[in-house]
Amino acid sequence: MSQTMSQSTKSNMSQGTTLSKMTEAEINRIEEMRREEKEENKKTCDKLKHLFHMAMELDFIHCLMEREAMMNYLNKRGDPDWTAGYIWGLADSNKIDWVKGYGDPTQYEEYKKAMNKALAKYLHPK
Q1: DSSP states of 62-80 as a string?
Q2: Per residue in 106-122, pLDDT tens?
Q3: Sequence-ordered list of residues with C-beta below 8 angstroms from that of 117, at least 6 positions apart, any chain
Q4: How many folded domains does the chain comprise?
Q5: CA distance 5 to 51
Q6: Full domain range(s) for residue 12
Q7: Are 48 and 88 in contact (CB under 8 A)?
Q8: 3-class SS letters over 107-124
Q9: How far apart are CA 8 and CA 3, in angstroms?
């Protein structure tokens, strides 16, 4: 039993040593940066949901099936600083929500995954 406890203590001490090298302020700053990034991604995903909904409602989403056309639309109507790689990352990780037609029998999660996969295909890094 003491051998198990000493191994556990050594493991905790080695992890603690790594964390102790960082100051509390550094750890807090990293956590704050992660929160800000998560919040920014959420805002971007909300804006993308709106943009794609409008493209579907106005029946021109089929015109955006090329990387350049898609990014021209997103940069003009959304944020000029968005890159194809950034949007691709959100789509590839299935973070973008989509508006689904009322009569569509597809389960929402399946629909969302298919739409994000399609978007990721158009924006895939070259």
Answers
A1: GGG-SHHHHHHHHHHHT-T
A2: 999 999 999 999 999 99
A3: 91
A4: 1
A5: 56
A6: 2-123
A7: no
A8: CHHHHHHHHHHHHHHHHC
A9: 9
